[in-house]
Design goal:
Strand content: over 45%
Radius of gyration: 14 Å
Shape: elongated
Largest sheet: 7 strands, mixed
Distance between the termini: 39 Å
Number of strands: 11
Helix content: under 10%
Order of helices and strands: EEEEEEEEEEE
Amino acid sequence: QGQLVESGGGLVQPGGSLRLSCAASESTWRIVAMGWFRQATGKNRELVATIRSDGTTTYADSLKGRFTISGDNANTVYLQMNSLKPEDTAVYYCYATKTMSTSQYTDWGQGTQVTVSS
């Protein structure tokens, strides 16, 4: 399995912005999708956004217009978060779904804390 290195979390005031990054280590497995989930205290983990190898993206309906996911050719994915709200406070987990032949698995990052508070 590979490694995912996350960065960019922290404390921000309501209305502010943060940019999360997630870099996947080199692997013989091909990445087919990368993205972010988040988990707030006492709540289930929920999908934030996904970007696939063909460039298509998916967002949680509640986050459309405020969050933008993007990627580069170096197996790195970014999550630009604007107009942050206190309810966006959560641990954000990066993931990468990889495939080789007929096999597939998902790597997870260790999570980065995002706190939106005044």
